[in-house]
TrEMBL record:
The keyword Cell inner membrane does not apply. It comes from Tumidithrix elongata BACA0141. InterPro entries: RNaseH-like_sf, RNaseH_sf. SUPFAM superfamilies: Ribonuclease H-like (SSF53098). Keywords: Exonuclease, Hydrolase, Nuclease. It comes from the Bacteria. One of its GO terms (molecular function) is exonuclease activity. This is Exonuclease domain-containing protein.
Amino acid sequence: MSYIMVDVESDGPIPGDYSMICFGAIVVEPSLSRTFYAQLKPISAQWIPEALKISGFSREETLTFAEPQTAMEKFADWIEAESSGRPLFISDNNGFDWQFINWYFHHFCGKNPFGYSSSNLGSLYKGLVKDTFVNFKHLRKTAHTHHPVDDVRGNAEALLQLKEKYGLKISLG
């Protein structure tokens, strides 16, 4: 099994009505060297300027990005090549990130290589330390910039800390 940390930036709150603009992924392992990044052309005429602003792109820029089907097929190929065994989806906001990745995979590729489930890094940390009022973000080394590769790297660093410092029993790789 391979844990793959994923982060999504979008131009609105839900897939279909709005678009996934870019996303990043990283195989969670000590080297943190295997990453994926894609920028996707919008699939909808709807977009929320404040949501798009978080990604740092203008609407005009996003219209030049890759076709979503091409990007998702490349991501599926990367997952197949880079994961050992079943790939496991994890993110710091899986309610948001999962909905986009799952919808886009099913819509453009007919299936999701991650299957039907995802994990939430924040919930994992809260359970591990037995405190629902804390967050894991102090465990990141890489700054959270809203560039998906920076964000997945920081979140993967935090997950590695859960294993190393807190004794989380997890198989990575």
